[in-house]
Write a structure and sequence with these properties.
Elements lengths: L15 E11 L3 H12 L4 E4 L16 E2 L12 H11 L6 H21 L23 E2 L9 E2 L5 H12 L2 E3 L2 E11 L2 E11 L5 E11 L28 H9 L3 E2 L5 E2 L26 E2 L8 E2 L39 E2 L2 H6 L6 E3 L6 H7 L3 H4 L4 H10 L9 E3 L14 E2 L6 E2 L12 E3 L10 H19 L9 H12 L10 H15 L3 E2 L1 H17 L9 H26 L10 E2 L13 E7 L2 E7 L7 H8 L1 H5 L4
Parallel strand pairs: 1-2, 1-9, 2-6, 9-19, 20-21
Antiparallel strand pairs: 3-5, 4-5, 7-8, 8-9, 10-18, 10-22, 11-17, 12-15, 13-14, 15-16, 22-23
Helix pairs in contact: 1-4, 1-10, 2-3, 3-10, 5-14, 12-13, 12-14, 13-14
């Protein structure tokens, strides 16, 4: 095609580069980095493929402020079993017992690894000496539950560079600026298995073929499904705009099984042009917990404990209620059930009924100095996109938390009132089904982090990444390379480069906007068969009519175009999952206007689906399919336990 401007990189779209390794890791976020590190430590040759730049890529590239479920840290008063069971119960058993137990059992081990690599996980500079949340012996700092001390505050902005340095030290071959686009499958002893992946250099367009014995999917959860603003792409998601679920799309096309893909909650971590950047307005959730809140008159809004008792001091906001062992906060837990409910302000409707006046504000000046500084300066500053857009910008413009308040928009932490049809894959969303090895239904293909169903936060990503790296390494040492089907490569080459062969047509922005509007209209807050089938028909029409018209001029835009195609495929996966579940489900935030009450009992479990030859195949798996978590884990990880890692 004729390009309207000069592209600064060489045109290598006609070239193909072949590589091979024992273990191939797709995705260079926290999960992918730890998967590659663990496999390399086992003596495997490892290739890591990352669409961005591994040193700062992924959802945690700019930082994160806390580490959940560090149950084995020396100050913790809870066990991995207690917190895992709490997660499972709190989510009505629509939870990932395997991955959450790995998170709770090994999460603190990964923090110690990070510290060895050069990341900062404790107050080594003594900034917060004497604070109630700081352990004076270890320098560890805690969030939420100060009594049980299983969630740590950390300097997340130091962690990706430290992991990158360790990857280089171990000799992992890193392919930055390479977008993975398709999984290769082959056959070994008559069994279909993973054989590697295909990708594309997003600057030069070179086709990359990665042959491997084991492949680990460690890419992002889906995004930009319901919410997308073509003019403000960077504000459409809390996570990086390129983290859109390509691993899910690749897996779906390859026949990997997924579960809980019908689950979606109201949009929260998004700005999408209608609201404010997350954590940029006053609130009292997650990063801002437990900020003092006041109404428009400056009247302080009371906090109450689990039992409704009004709390008199800031310190009490971080303590369980009388008779309560511990409480859950942060990440996938917002409105916990009664046994796990933590201190919170009175609910919005009660406040209005009692005469509190809008707007509300977060007033950190009324908090002890240490609490104020740890929220504004560490938590706000280390969490995701807050360091530059929020902390630096607000400070340069004169905001002083010791003097000023920040207005709270909306009734919750999302900083806006989202519409019912604006859903999102947030809060332990759907993902890949797997066994205790984190292996998928395709032999030799593993998953970790946000690729797993009911995924959580950073500790979850790091722990499951390391675990998948160990199991994939063990597998790779026991088998030989599978044969690669060259026809797969030829077909993927044609699919990849088709938009570059056109001189005009439809852009990726138009496709993404069309898919988002379709999902809002036909897969919104309330669903039924007619709507869902119309949504499927419309998206399949897009495949037939819009996809052949997609065009772009550069490899970078080609990457964006394939993100749009992946968003389209993930949307089809979601619609099919929603069609299969016939009854409404409160824990899945799934409501049908045509709910079949007779199907409810049969559907009490995980609906697992995949596609094969264009046909959708599904089955139901019991909630507790993973068995006794501690016994199953220990039977499979004796070497790890023997070495004193957990």
């Amino acid at each position: 095609m004729t390009r309207e401007f000069e592209w600064p990189y060489p045109d290598e779209t006609a070239q193909t580069e072949h590589t091979e390794s024992d273990v191939l890791v797709l995705g260079g976020g926290l999960a992918g980095c730890f998967a590659a590190i663990a496999a390399a430590e086992k003596g495997c040759s490892v290739i890591l493929v990352e669409k961005g730049a591994t040193e700062r890529s992924g959802s945690a590239g700019s930082g994160f402020d806390h580490w959940e479920s560090a149950c084995t840290n020396p100050c913790s008063k809870v066990t991995p079993e207690e917190i895992t069971e709490a997660y499972i119960e709190e989510q009505d058993e629509y939870s990932n017992g395997i991955a959450h137990y790995i998170e709770c059992r090994e999460g603190y081990d990964r923090l110690l690894d990070i510290e060895r690599y050069g990341g900062k996980i404790r107050d080594t500079d003594g900034e917060f000496i004497g604070a109630e949340f700081r352990d004076e012996k270890t320098g560890l700092m805690f969030a939420y539950d100060y009594e049980n001390r299983f969630t740590l505050r950390v300097w997340g902005s130091t962690i990706k560079p430290a992991l990158y340095k360790e990857l280089k030290r171990l000799g992992v071959r890193i392919f930055d600026r390479v977008e993975a686009t398709a999984l290769l499958t082959g056959s070994r002893n008559g069994t279909r298995c993973g054989a590697g992946a295909i990708g594309m250099n997003v600057r030069t367009g070179k086709l990359m073929v990665f042959r491997s014995k084991a492949t680990i999917l460690a890419m992002s959860r889906p995004a930009r499904i319901w919410l997308f603003n073509p003019d403000l792409v960077g504000l459409c998601e809390f996570r990086p705009p390129q983290s859109i679920g390509s691993g899910h799309a690749m897996g779906w096309r390859a026949g990997i099984e997924f579960t809980m893909m019908e689950k979606s909650v109201r949009g929260e971590f998004s700005a999408a042009g209608r609201s404010f950047p997350p954590y940029g307005t006053g609130n009292n959730h997650n990063t801002w917990y437990a900020a003092t809140m006041v109404d428009a008159r400056g009247v302080e809004i009371p906090y109450v404990d689990r039992d409704g008792n009004e709390l008199k001091t800031v310190s009490e906001r971080y303590r369980p209620a009388k008779g309560q062992k511990f409480f859950l906060k942060g990440g996938v837990i917002d409105e916990a059930k009664y046994p796990y409910r933590g201190p919170e302000t009175l609910d919005f409707d009660t406040l209005i009924a009692r005469g509190y006046r809008l707007p509300f504000y977060a007033d950190l000046s009324r908090m002890p100095e240490m609490e104020r500084r740890v929220i504004w300066g560490m938590m706000v500053g280390e969490e995701a996109k807050t360091k530059i857009p929020i902390l630096d910008n607000y400070t340069r413009r004169g905001f002083d938390p010791a003097k000023h308040m920040l207005q709270s928009y909306g009734s919750g932490w999302q900083s806006a009132a989202f519409l019912g049809q604006e859903r999102q894959l947030f809060g332990a969303p759907g993902g890949i089904m797997h066994d205790w090895n984190l292996q998928t239904n395709i032999e030799g293909i593993y998953a970790a982090g946000d690729q797993l169903f009911a995924s959580d936060c950073c500790g979850f990503a790091c722990a499951t990444g390391h675990y998948a790296g160990r199991t994939a390494a063990k597998w790779s040492k026991s088998i030989s390379f599978a044969d690669i089907d060259m026809e797969q490569i030829d077909q993927e080459r044609k699919r990849l480069y088709a938009p570059l062969d056109r001189n005009d047509g439809i852009s990726w922005r138009e496709l993404n906007m069309a898919v988002s509007k379709a999902m809002q209209n036909y897969c919104g807050a309330v669903k039924n068969d007619d709507l869902l089938k119309e949504g499927l028909r419309l998206l399949n029409d897009y495949k037939q009519e819009i996809v052949p018209q997609l065009y772009c001029q550069t490899p970078h835009d080609l990457m964006r175009t394939h993100e749009g195609l992946d968003i389209l495929d993930v949307s089809l996966l979601i619609l099919n999952a929603c069609l299969i579940r016939k009854s409404s489900s409160k824990p899945l935030y799934f409501e049908r206007s045509d709910s079949d009450s007779t199907a409810a009992d049969a559907e009490k479990g995980f609906i697992v689906l995949h596609q094969e030859g264009g046909k959708i195949i599904h089955r139901t798996v019991p909630h507790r399919y993973f068995g006794a978590i501690k016994a199953e884990y220990e039977s499979l990880n004796r070497d790890y336990i023997t070495k004193g890692r957990s």
